[in-house]
Amino acid sequence: MNPSGNAFTPQMLALPFFTGFGPDELQILWKHSRPVSWPADTEVIREGQVATEFFLILDGKLMVQTHVPGRGEITLQTLLRGDVLGWSWLTANASFSFSARTVQASSALAFDGTTLLRECEHHPKLGYLLMRRFALVMSDRLRHTRLQLLDLYAPPRTSGAFPVIKKR
User: Fold this and answer.
1) Which residue of 9, 48, 155, 156 is 20 to 30 Å from 17, comparing CA positions?
2) Nearest-CA neighbor of 97 among 124, 120, 64?
3) C-alpha torsion angle, residues 123, 111, 57, 25 (rounded to 10)
4) Alpha-carbon distance 102 to 38, whole Å?
């Protein structure tokens, strides 16, 4: 899948995502990755779209969003260099749980999740390392979603330091 070059750059390997991968696992990841880039204000993934890949952000800024009826798009999280977008590819017949849009021009490595799942069958260490990373991604996304829900459904704020007391 990746015809350009033959290895990740040192700048890419410095990203926390790659920590702990050995040369064999890195070669498999490289083989199933490709560079991608998007201009500002571009939809990268759409909630409900079939999920077959994930992205490691190399540069730029993206918003992870979800649609809330009556409120429109709600931003759950902002992703920057080193963050991962997309975990839904881990499950069979999966679709993306959230949407993502670029805030500014952005670049990433796109990984073929479908093919990597097959590789994990033959390379259990790769599967274990990927699952550990994506457990963190899912946990982080869930935490950010929870914070947004708390904000979305919080009682209305009053204008002063004290709540308004109604007279009887």
Assistant:
1) 48
2) 64
3) 20
4) 7
